[in-house]
Amino acid sequence: EAAGPTIVAGEILVEIMATEQGLGFLEPLALMGPYPSGAPAIFIDQVAKLGGGAGIVACVGRDDFGTINLERLKRDGVDISAVSVSDRFPTGSAFVRYRPDGGRDFVYNIAESAAGQIRLTPEARRLADDAGHLHVMGSTLSVAGLKEIVAYAAKAVRGRGGSTSFDPNVRKELIDGADGALLSALVDDADLLLPSGDELLAAAGVNDEKEAVAALIARGVGEIVLKRGAAGSTRFGADGSRIDCAGFLVEEVDPTGAGDCFGATYLTCRRKGMEPAKALFYANAAGARNVTRRGPMEGLAGFDVLDDFIAGTARAT
Ligand code: ATP
Ligand code: MG
């Protein structure tokens, strides 16, 4: 395990949510926010909360939406030296409203916001050159500058004996054929793969969970942790082992961010040398606690808070 912080690259956003469930945004309604957000930001803030070294490559606007994000990341201990500030583009945003059936409606402003201006700057190179781990999210790869940053950072981290993880939450319609090679390389090289639901099957290109795990391990993946929402999670080891972890019983107030909070917790526990079963347990607790708070980053928690949560919360059996 190489020394050096865990790094991510991608969108920093604010999230603004409808206070009442319903369908979309077609009439005036009560909104709450801005909340700091963006999948890479959620992930890296949780790494820092657990005491892990953490850094992010991103771009925000010179506005209050950018400021609340940068203040939060800085407060929690994330290195923001590679976050550039655009004078021309506003910070990205996502409006979300929850449907009664559990679905979500979004209005995004990402590609044409500051988040779309992310580039491989000298500061980004510097961050990558010192990093010990790179976490990549498939969902962010459609942004123009991201592929170059990920390619550079993966090479730098690998070069110094570091490790990588990959969340294959790829929106297929946003990835053209030329990216297929980059995606398969990210999967093949991943020390840790963090799919949720059917993403496991999609990443392997087969229709059965067991076959998918075997195929991915054969391609070189170090370990696979499958996220199952309220049902918990499962960890598959390269040695053929399997550990299931039941979900904690909580009231889900806001599901956004659970997957990233979970993944950051599992990874950080592992980087600290924790056994897979214990890391999985903490990750389940972190994901479950996060859905009990409104705002994707408001339920992130360090070990003290997680230990209290674990002591006071029942699990499904
Ligand atoms: P996202 O919606 O952020 O993309 P995801 O689909 O990647 O999330 P989930 O499976 O929804 O990931 O959540 C990650 C983990 O968080 C789960 O494996 C579980 O441990 C925990 N979790 C999520 N939702 C709940 C819930 N309602 N109750 C208990 N635990 C939950
Ligand atoms: Mg997901």
Broad shape: globular
Helical residue percent? 25-40%
- Which regions have little confidence, pLDDT < 50, spanning 5+ residues? none
- Give the names of the bound compounds: adenosine-5'-triphosphate, magnesium ion
Oligomeric state, counting identical vs distinct chains: single chain
Overall structural class, as computed from helix and strand content, comes to: alpha/beta
Q: What's the number of helices?
A: 10
Q: Strand arrangement, largest sheet?
A: 5-4-1-8-9-10-11-12-13
Give the overall average pLDDT.
94
Helix and strand element order: EEEHEHEEEHEHEHEHHEEEHHH
Radius of gyration in whole Å, from Cα?
A: 18 Å
Terminal Cα separation, in Å? 35 Å
Q: Please report the total strand number as a whole number.
A: 13
Proportion of beta-strand residues: 15-25%
Profile the largest sheet.
9 strands, mixed
What does this structure look like?
The strands form 2 sheets. A 9-stranded mixed beta sheet has the order 5-4-1-8-9-10-11-12-13, with helices on both faces. It has 317 residues and is of the alpha/beta class. The chain has helices at residues 39-49, 64-76, 122-129, 146-159, 180-189, 199-204, 209-218, 258-271, 276-290, 303-312, and strands at 6-9, 13-18, 31-37, 54-61, 83-86, 92-98, 104-109, 133-137, 163-167, 192-193, 223-227, 233-237, 242-245. The chain is 35% helix and 21% strand. Strand 4 (54-61), helix 2 and strand 5 (83-86) form a beta-alpha-beta unit. Helix 9 crosses helix 10 (303-312). It contains 10 helices and 13 strands. It binds adenosine-5'-triphosphate and magnesium ion.
